[in-house]
Design brief:
single chain; 254 residues; alpha+beta; 4-stranded antiparallel beta sheet; 6 helices; elongated; disordered C terminus
Length: 254
Amino acid sequence: MVADKGKKMKLADKDEDHSSEHIDGELVLSIEKLQEVQDELEKISDEASEKVLEIEQKYSELRKPVYDKRSEVIKSIPDFWLTAFLSHPALGNLLSENDQKIFQYLSSLEVEDSEDLKSGFSIIFHFKPNPYFEDVMIKKSYTFPEEGEAEVTATSIKWKEGMGIANGANHKKKGKKREQSDESFFQWFKDDSDPDAINDEIAEIIREDLWVNPLAYFNQDDDGEPDSDEGGGEDDGSEEEDDGSEEEEEYDDE
């Protein structure tokens, strides 16, 4: 009896092993099928990305002459880029008081993408001759090769004697003006060796936001709101009330 019982237990174990192997085999087949479907989806996504990139490249070429035209118009507007920078909610507090003086010589700013739009871009500042540095053009470039590590390079600014980057104390503005930076914005051009420089928030904001529509920020007031003529509207109403009161006095005299 004991021997028969042992045989039954062995048979039960074999049945369990067989069932487990069957389940494992079905699971493997399901995962393989799922991987095939996922590969098919990724292939379609890759094709879509290539098509989107082709369209972006086409329209990037169409934008270039329009950006050039915009730059020419901006040159006729005094302190355009300084005003746009100061009005931007993320960039405005990066300019020290001394930076603002330098930015008065900034004639144009441009973002130059690589031809394929994916291997890199440059942010370029053009300056009129000024008492601060010898350069008339300074830029910061980001390169993203298909193989290898990304790179960041920047112009080494040739400061004139006594005009190098100097960090001072925070300068608080009166009223609703925000506090200005105690570090020069031009320090950004020296941060090319920082490992975190690849994920550069300043570059992203300039490229994706300020460059796309700087007029939106040039037209903002110090609170980040578009300029309006609300004050003028209130004055008009008060003038109408005054006119009405004068008419009442004339009727009383009669």
